[in-house]
Design goal:
The chain is of the alpha/beta class. The chain has three domains: 3-157, no CATH class; 165-280, Rossmann fold (3-Layer(aba) Sandwich); 295-625, Rossmann fold. The protein has 22 helices and 22 strands. Strands 10-9-8-11-12-13-18-22-21 form a nine-stranded mixed β-sheet, sandwiched between helices. It starts with a helix and ends in an 8-residue tail after the last helix.
């Protein structure tokens, strides 16, 4: 669109707006003028009686005109006529009251002068009475405007014959008040607010803006049934994670659609918080208290340094890259074999941080020669090794690929780090490495052994960080459940009692960065994953959040454990003991002595079996390398 076309488009809108403002101002101006006349007509009747009233009013046109000019002028200067009174706030009413009081003082002063010079017979009593009436009626006219608009809006909803959603708001604080006001003033939001829920005893059964506080969190299910609630809105952005999670679990049992206002920042900043209300996600039900990081320690080893992330385009790797860039490295090198994910991450980081500090390398950790050239070119200070095949059933069916990529890809990266003088090498491991029942977990345990063994004869600090499942990662159960629900079900669970540890991707990567700051070499850092979650319960919660009833609207099928799958995961082996670190969510597993020559001899056998793609030989070799491997036929 050209500039001329823009001008043609804008001008009519501006004219319409100006006309509307003039019309609104003229209407209010006329009402206020009539109020002044009315006040000066009624005042003599109140003060002097009706017999003398008509004579006094007829002879005091000048007094009425002066008072009218003063009131209108002061209200205009105070911008009272710019307020849209159908959406007025307490501050707006305070504005007109303050302006009216100022105008009253001026009227009294001018009136005294006029009395002194015999220009008026209105004494102080009559004048005080008149200005009081003016103030009251000006306030009343604005309130009446708001009341009439509310009635009109209700009638419009009735005429439109639109089914209105019955909404229960949890939380009767400032955020809820802003939302309630927005709901009342927006014709496009078809909601009837049936009441508030609040745990504050002082608010119980109080009426706030015409809406009653009906009870506390323990009354939610009862109230939803009694009031036929369609939707619940959690509007407690300042609540702690545990309180919010408990309330969401209660709400989730009602079968109502749930929405949440997630952040108090929107309330403080004064932005339109209605735009930030969103559907509740499964992450909200599994959320934990925010991670507290020692940013100084993390910054010390990242700022101004070159950082290399292998598998940088994956779920964990990409989030590591995002977190690392916040600490201002000299260069971030993202290495990945899958170009699409790497490209998407490159575009995202380039937009945020520019192109100078980010290089993307397409390479495989299997190719040691290529890897060595990358290490020599960039001379990284820290390496985060996240490249790995992670899908348990796929690796169970393709064990040679798991061995080549996970075990020998890691060995290549470890040897390159040692040969090129990398300061610190951090392996991203998994809870599946503990007493593994599948090839994938066993390969990650071998990786941990390689890292611990390398520490003995190297200046590089080799460490591993072990944690459980991350929400939303590639291959995670959550995206699978969502796809099954979107397609109409059923939702498949491998076993009714299967449990897993869960952590969000940002939480996991933040703890990895913090753990790396504690590294001295040889440690296996174990992250506190909280309480394990039953996958069957996870499926039920996700179905409810999607608006269905588990096993009524959406069936849950138990299909049996997959090859190599355990009922529960562990974070620690029996021979490992935990030591505390400075962070309450990071622990250190006791290092286990590993003979380098014996390990490399077994690795040679394992490599030969993988190259021959001999599944039986691979599993026999894995049993020798990883004594805790529990082989499944």
């Amino acid at each position: 669109m050209s500039n001329n076309e823009n001008k043609k488009y804008i001008k009519p809108t501006a004219k319409v707006k100006t006309k509307y403002n003039l019309f609104r101002n003229r209407t209010l101006l006329l009402i206020d003028m009539l109020i002044v006349v009315f006040a000066y007509f009624v005042t003599p009747i109140i003060v002097d009686g009706i017999d003398n009233a008509m004579k006094m009013v007829a002879s005091q046109y000048g007094t009425i005109l002066v008072s009218m000019v003063i009131f209108i002028a002061v209200l205009y200067i105070a911008r009272v006529y710019t307020v849209l009174w159908i959406h007025a706030s307490t501050r707006d009413y305070a504005r007109i009251l303050y302006a009216g009081l100022v105008a009253s003082v001026f009227v009294l002063m001018i009136n005294n002068l006029m009395v002194h010079f015999n220009y008026t017979s209105y004494g102080p009593r009559q004048t005080i009475c008149a200005v009081f009436i003016i103030l009251v009626f000006m306030l009343f006219s604005r309130m009446l405007t708001y009341a009439l608009y509310s009635v009109y809006r209700e009638r419009q909803h009735m005429v439109a014959d639109v089914k209105r959603q019955r909404l229960l708001i949890v939380g009767a604080g400032s955020a809820a008040m802003i939302l309630l006001k927005d709901l009342a003033g927006n014709n496009n939001l078809n909601y009837d607010v049936v009441g508030f829920i609040d745990d504050d005893k002082t608010k119980q059964y109080a009426i706030i803006y015409g809406v009653k506080v009906l009870g506390n969190r323990h009354d939610i299910q009862r109230i939803c049934k009694e009031k036929s609630v369609d939707e619940i809105l959690l509007a407690i952005p300042s609540a702690g994670v545990s309180d919010r999670r408990e309330i969401l679990e209660i709400c989730n049992e009602t079968g109502c659609k749930i929405k949440i206002l997630p952040s108090i920042d929107q309330v403080i900043s004064g932005t339109d918080i209605r735009n930030h209300v969103r559907d509740v996600q499964i992450e909200d039900l599994l959320a934990r208290e925010p991670i507290k990081l020692d940013n100084t320690e993390i910054s010390d080893y990242i700022e101004g340094k070159t950082i290399l992330v292998t598998g940088g385009g994956g779920s964990i790797g990409s989030e590591l890259c995002r977190q690392i860039m916040r600490y201002n490295p000299e260069k971030l090198v993202v290495l990945d074999i899958y170009e699409n994910n790497a490209y998407d991450l490159q575009m995202e980081l380039n937009k945020e941080y520019g192109t100078e500090k980010i290089d993307v390398i397409i390479a495989s950790v299997r190719d040691k020669d290529r890897l060595k050239k990358v290490f020599l070119k960039y001379n990284p200070y820290i390496v985060f090794h996240a490249a790995a095949h992670k899908h348990v059933p796929l690796m169970e069916a393709n064990p040679s690929e798991a061995i080549k990529n996970n075990v020998f890809g890691t060995l290549n990266a470890v040897q390159c780090a040692d040969e090129c003088g990398v300061k610190r090498f951090v392996l991203i491991s998994t809870d599946k490495a503990v007493n593994p029942t599948n090839i994938m977990g066993a390969t990650k345990r071998v990786c941990e052994m390689i890292v611990q063994c390398a520490q003995a004869n190297s200046k590089t600090e080799f460490v591993a960080v072990r944690f459980g499942n991350v929400l939303g990662s590639n291959g995670s159960v959550i995206p699978l459940f969502k796809k099954q629900i979107e397609s109409g079900g059923p939702v498949t669970v491998t076993h009714k009692e299967i449990t897993r540890f869960f952590m969000t991707i940002p939480e996991a990567t933040q703890l990895v960065l913090q753990a790396a700051s504690y590294a001295k070499g040889g440690e296996i850092f174990v992250l506190d994953m909280g309480e394990p979650v039953r996958i069957y319960d996870l499926a039920k919660n996700l179905i409810r959040l999607s608006g269905y009833k588990p096993n009524v609207d959406m069936k849950i099928e138990v299909c049996g454990l997959r090859p190599g799958e355990k009922l529960y995961e562990e974070l620690l082996m029996e021979e490992e003991g935990l030591e505390n670190t400075e962070h309450d969510k990071i622990f250190i597993g006791k290092p286990i002595d590993i003979e380098k020559d014996k390990l490399f001899s077994m690795l040679a056998d394992l490599k030969e079996a993988a190259e021959k793609d001999d599944i039986e030989a691979i599993k026999c070799s894995v049993e020798k390398v990883v004594p805790t491997y529990i082989r499944q036929q």
